[in-house]
């Protein structure tokens, strides 16, 4: 058990020999960060008390980087991802989408910008049941502008890339769980996003299918130069990203970094 993890906030000096980095390295410093959060706070009323879910979360994701976030159930992973996605607002702290101060934008303004900046993949897929796979992927493009031949070609190419060349005209109900999630991955990438946020994308899949979806997600994000923020319970999946973080007691802990 890495006892350093518990000490990370108390200690200011990085212990590189143990692979543990301290909070300074989580705090953004580089202008190359595509997604950057400092001091994010979120609380929810809980009866006559207040539940402090995020207590000052720092996170910087560089262009094209893959990062995993683990944490116990209820630790605030989905709350954090929704704030990073601009679907919810923090009670405090700053959030930058590239250089834009997202924390200063209204939810409406965030919605207008989200479709071109990031894509999301959820545990429950969230495909539109009445639309076939191709039309589901194209929905991402419709949200940000008119859909022409180039968008159709891109959607079809993405579906081919995720292994669904023979499934483009299938409705979600006609697809397996793994196939539905592949459609969701293609949809998330449709608008050439800088960032993909994936919230337990294998939570509804069997082990082998989950492994395949994670491998695919990492591959296509790399090919598309999209950064990936992967929330997962699965330690084997977390280890596949270049950097592994843990949300613990409302703060972000960086435990391992490979290849640096
Ligand atoms: N809208 C909400 N209102 C009140 N409490 C919430 C709300 N959303 C989440 N919570 C609480 O915040 C905590 C973190 O939730 P969540 O972000 O979903 O955790 P995780 O995704 O890590 O399992 C949980 O205790 C949850 O019950
Ligand atoms: Mg969650």
Question: How would you characterize this protein structure?
Answer:
The protein has helices at residues 4-7, 23-26, 77-84, 107-117, 133-144, 149-161, 177-189, 207-224, 235-238; strands at 33-46, 49-62, 66-70, 92-97, 100-101, 118-122, 195-199, 227-231, 243-248, 251-257. It is 33% helix and 27% strand. A hairpin with a 2-residue loop joins β9 (243-248) and β10 (251-257). The model is unreliable at 1-28 (pLDDT under 50). The protein is α/β, with parallel strands linked by helices. The protein has a six-stranded mixed sheet, with helices on both faces. It has a four-stranded antiparallel sheet with strand order 2-1-4-5, covered by helices on one side. It has a single domain (17-257), classed as Rossmann fold (3-Layer(aba) Sandwich), CATH 3.40.50.300. The structure holds adenosine-5'-diphosphate (ADP) and magnesium ion. Adenosine-5'-diphosphate binds at residues 44, 51, 53, 71, 73-79. The site of magnesium ion (MG) has 3 residues, from α3.
